[in-house]
Amino acid sequence: MLHVAQMSDAEWDTALDKTIIWQNDHDFVGAWSPYHYSGWTRLRALDGWQSLRIVDDDRRPIAQVLAKRIGLVTAVYCPGGFVRNQAIGASALMKFLQHELDTSALYARVHCLTPTQFGDARMELSGWSRSSTILSSGQSLQLRLDTPLDERLADLSVNWRRNLRRAEHHENHVTITDQPSAQEIAHLHESLELTKGHRLSTWGSSTAHVQALIDGFGSRLVVARCVSDQGNLRALRGAVLTGGCAYDVLASSSTEGRKHYSSHLTLWTLFNELAGRGITRYDLGGVDAQENPGVYNFKNGAGATPISYGGEYDSALPSFIRSTLSRLVAFRSVI
Questions:
Q1: Which one, of 227, 243, 246, 216, lies nearest residue 177 by Cα?
Q2: CATH number, domain at 217?
Q3: Per residue in 77-113, pLDDT tens?
């Protein structure tokens, strides 16, 4: 049976850490992305989302969902998907959510961000429908950090390795900080958006949202910071640690930083720091080779392996509103 979790943030996060068990290089059981963890709910709370955590009879985590009333409909979003790679029946979960949220009209989107070699056919067998519009490409790149340094160097592309050497001679100074500045991160992200002429995320340039991320994840958030000899901030990279894994959540660079290849040395330094902490895998946070080839080439050149996520699925009560609301998601009108 499904139950609402009566757990503190710390208890929930600790329970999630215990779920991660790798079965091979591609598949695993357990929570993977930061979206399963309590820290993510703090950030989304600023946008009016309330969190609901679901457990089974043995108090084992099943899912963390975000809910918000939008007009006459309650929208529910499950970023990261279900914990332990299980597929909860759509009918059972929708009725449970309808009761707990006291709503007559309900739309739910489950975004399975667990890396898998084969996709997640279990979702459709459990009554979920493939979403007609999607929020991401469903692709990412994953780097093994539990290999020797010389092997990771050898796995870099020729261009990436050359730019790393250039960065080491361009007055770049990278440090790891456990006290990142939300204002600094948001300002750098905003300047990058202005340079590119479009928004890169829904929250990266908001000091309040970045501060919520910092407060919510605490010591799980590790940030590499690169400055010049004069102390000018050139690049930032941040990852959230989930069990023995890391997930890319922050990435920005200045115009000066891009001229001096600062992002290469910043990311490489972060890799080495996390490897030293016993982190075994680093998810580079999603890629889209068609829509954003520059970011794809940068991440791919770091020696990472392509992975596929489980995909996006949805359901609705009553069922006839599903197709309409699924299309609205494409315009971020719902989620």
A1: 227
A2: 3.40.630.30
A3: 999 899 876 778 999 999 999 999 999 999 999 998 8
* In contact, 67 and 49? CB cutoff 8 Å: yes
Q: Tell me the one-letter amino acid at 51.
A: S
Model-level pTM greater than 0.85?
yes
**From CA 275, how far away is CA 246, in angstroms rounded?**
10
**Do 77 and 126 belong to one domain?**
yes
Element counts in the chain: helices (H) and strands (E): 12, 15
Please answer whether residues 295 and 95 qualify as being in contact, where contact means their C-beta atoms are separated by less than 8 angstroms: no
Mean pLDDT of the chain: 89
Instruction: Count the helix, strand and coil residues of the chain and give each as a percent rounded to the nearest 5.
Output: 40, 30, 35
Q: Which residue has the tokens 């215990």?
A: 18
Better-predicted residue by pLDDT, 162 or 60: 162
Q: Which domain holds residue 246?
A: 146-279
Give the end-to-end CA distance of the chain in Å, rounded to a whole number: 27
pLDDT at residue 24 tops 60:
no
Q: Is the peptide bond before 61 cis (omega within 30 degrees of 0)?
A: no
- Which residue reads 């995320």 in tokens? 201
